Amino acid sequence: MLSYALRRLLGAIPTLLILLTLAFVMMRAAPGGPFDADRELPPQVRANLEAKYHLDEPLYQQYGRYIWDVAHFDFGPSFQYRDTSVNDLIAQGFPVSLKLGAASLAFALIFGIPLGMLAALRQNKPADYGAMTVAMLGISIPNFVLAPLMILLFAVYNDWLPAGGLGSWQNYVMPVLALGTAMMAYVARLARGSTIEVMRSNYVRTARAKGLSAARVVWVHALPAALTPIVSFLGPAAAGIITGSVVIETIFGIPGLGQFFVQGALNRDYTLVMGVVLFYGILIVLFNLAVDLLYGWLDPRVSY
Amino acid sequence: MEQAAHGRSLFSDALRRLRSNKAALASIGVLGFIVVAAVVGPWLSPHNYFTQDYGAIWIAPTLADAHWLGTDGLGRDLFVRALEGGRISLMIGFVATLVSLIIGVAYGATAGYAGGRVDGVMMRIVDILYAMPFLFFVILLMVFFGRNILLIFVAIGAINWLDMARIVRGQTLALKQQPFIEAARMSGAPAVSIIARHIVPNLLGVVAVYITLTIPQVILFESFLSFLGLGVAEPATSWGALIKDGADEMGRAPWLLIVPAVFLAATLFCFNFIGDGLRDALDPKDR
């Protein structure tokens, strides 16, 4: 298993390199630069700035320098936030985003799995149709629609929850709901499908035939097998959370990585944008690896 | 596989199952209504989507002066703007899906039919592309190269073909083993015509399901971009752009948020129900 993990990590390096190169090329091909201010800078100041950030070197040299620095986990200085390195910004924004993302994922699993299993155990009965309609609604209402509607309802019309910022746990309620609802709905649909399949399998029939209680059959025998598709969904789910957090953080004014990314892209903060993209790339690679290892642990038939 | 064994009856079976699926039927009806409304609706109103009328700003939905769904802060009529936005959102949905369909089917069928090392390399490329956080590239594209509707089509289509390629490849691998393909090969048909005439038609069922599930994804994605202010440019609009404008003014004029949100959510809801219904109809093992 260790060698499998190592092989996967090595295999991710070319992927990340391609990602980095694409990001670099696009940033440099784009019109406009980080020092295009409303007021034209004096040529000497501009030259000094460009020299300081090595923007006056030939492109291949800048590229080489950047790759070298990144290989040493140094994402360089931010252009926009003077005197701050991209590493600092990521270290500042990531914990905030992580807290939001983890809470949303937990919400999705805690509510999605029971909802889906309930629907499966009452297949084609009103409870099933009800649960699946709720799930379909959850999938069909985008997070950027849900978030303003919730603000309208809970913050503007009724003064129940704060509309933005970070302070107490109440600040997290709406962002977590907005970010987690669609995922909850997907989890419920997956859980329903897999539970129906598992409940028809021979070993569950055996467990029933030998007289085990219905609860024991469901929770001990069926649950682990029913969870496997949900585990493999966690990879895309993590990517979805990251994407969603961009817009949710913007709506609720949460100072996380997503907001840094949007601001960085708008301000042409080359190093910040590339740093965040690369950081996300690494995160997704690691998360997918963890998911695959977890999968092997849940399903003994999978071997590496 | 099953398709070949059952021949034509699979489709009539599927059609029968789809007809008995009330949710899917209702969705087809609602969706048809939205599409027709988006196409002909704007002509029914005396207003157009871009004229500003400072004598009629922030009007709540009313029958007076034909501002059926109210107006925005520039006095533009929301009924017309919502339907005009629907035209753009739906068009992007269909066109970008078509782009991803063409790339995905061609790529997947080729990889699956060629097999061996070609398949290995082609699918490895797909794997690498899968790991890219594409959304970020699209955001960068929009920021750097301007908000160009053509660019949106291409960018979204270029991302979405990956899933399609994977699914089509899997199906092709299975189809390839069928005797009728072997017969075609024996009779000397070139690979290109086998793919085009024998493989692709047999993929239609799977592809149909997938199309109905891709269109809402694309619409959602475009709305997401527009919501971030990176989609279609003013005065043209889309549901995502309208939702963004509405969210900015929701305290004063909630209808500006609610109307496009209902249109968008209803459309996505219908597409998802139809996709589900089609999948159940073609492969009924879970229902």
TrEMBL record, chain A:
Entries under InterPro entries matching the protein: BPD_transp_1_N, MetI-like, MetI-like_sf
UniProt xrefs under SUPFAM superfamilies: MetI-like
Q: Where are the transmembrane segments?
A: 100-121, 133-157, 169-191, 212-231, 237-258, 270-298
* CDD domains reported for this sequence: TM_PBP2 (cd06261)
> Where does this chain mainly localize?
membrane
Instruction: Extract the Gene3D superfamilies matched here.
Output: MetI-like
Its domain of life reads Bacteria
Topology relative to the membrane, per the entry? Multi-pass membrane protein
Question: Per the record, a Pfam family?
Answer: BPD_transp_1
Location relative to the cell: Cell membrane
Q: Which UniProt keywords apply?
A: Cell membrane, Membrane, Transmembrane, Transmembrane helix, Transport
The Gene Ontology biological process terms listed for this entry are: transmembrane transport
Q: Does the keyword Transferase apply?
A: no
One CC-aspect GO term: plasma membrane
Residues of the ABC transmembrane type-1 domain:
94-295
**Record keyword Methyltransferase present:** no
Listed PANTHER family: DIPEPTIDE TRANSPORT SYSTEM PERMEASE PROTEIN DPPB-RELATED, DIPEPTIDE-TRANSPORT INTEGRAL MEMBRANE PROTEIN ABC TRANSPORTER DPPB-RELATED
Q: Which family does it belong to?
A: Belongs to the binding-protein-dependent transport system permease family.
Name of the featured protein: Binding-protein-dependent transport systems inner membrane component
Originating species? Salinisphaera shabanensis E1L3A
Q: List the taxonomic lineage.
A: Bacteria, Pseudomonadati, Pseudomonadota, Gammaproteobacteria, Salinisphaerales
UniProtKB/TrEMBL annotation, chain B:
Annotated SUPFAM superfamilies: MetI-like
Instruction: Return the protein name.
Output: Oligopeptide transport system permease protein OppC
Species annotation:
Salinisphaera shabanensis E1L3A
Q: Which PANTHER family match?
A: OLIGOPEPTIDE TRANSPORT SYSTEM PERMEASE PROTEIN APPC (PTHR43386), OLIGOPEPTIDE TRANSPORT SYSTEM PERMEASE PROTEIN OPPC (PTHR43386:SF2)
**One GO CC term, this protein:** plasma membrane
Kindly give the membrane topology term recorded for this protein.
Answer: Multi-pass membrane protein
UniProt subcellular location: Cell inner membrane; Cell membrane
Top-rank taxon, per record: Bacteria
Q: Name one GO biological process term.
A: protein transport
Main subcellular localisation: membrane
Q: What range(s) does the ABC transmembrane type-1 domain occupy?
A: 86-275
Q: Which residues cross the membrane?
A: 23-44, 88-109, 121-143, 149-168, 189-213, 255-274
